[in-house]
Amino acid sequence: MRLKKDASAQKIRGAYYTPDALADFMVRNFYHDNTVNKILEPSCGDGVFVDSIIENFDMQNIELLRAIEIDQTEADKVIAKAAGLNNVQVTAEDFFVYYNRYKKQHTYDLIIGNPPYVRYQYLTEDQRKIHTEILKSNGMKANKLINIWVSFLAACVSMLNKGGKVAFVLPAELLQLAYAEDLRMFLSTICTILFK
Q1: Could you tell me the strand order of the sheet in which 108-113 lies?
Q2: What is the tally of structural domains in the chain?
């Protein structure tokens, strides 16, 4: 077992960055969708999805593009890229904290990105509590094997407007591992799933 003290900061944050071409491919599946007015990128890193949205969407038709990033240095990069766009809001905080505060008030037409991949043992105690609550409140069992991306995806799905869409880079574990079985059931009962 690898100890938290021996893990890199990137590993502890679960930061695995998306190539530009993949972000563009995902964004282009939605940029002509007139129902998309409010967009959330809940783990924006250095802003590859934000860049693609700004380049591909007519930003005058977007009410809000909210980007959340736990790392202040990365959030500052996105803030600089979005300078001058009043409908882009970048928040430097843990998505779980944001979710806990606004889950009933903030909803979105499109939630897009690459969630963090953090093992349970690398979570703070507060993150563990929120992670467990998200799983349980969505009919899933919580255990110490479940990676944070599972609760992250469930939280995002619960923040969708009616008819809203989630587009995430997800691991093959979603389709294979026993700990993702509850998530598969959850998604299959409330979502139409399209794999591209």
Answers
A1: 88-92, 64-69, 38-41, 108-113, 160-168
A2: 1
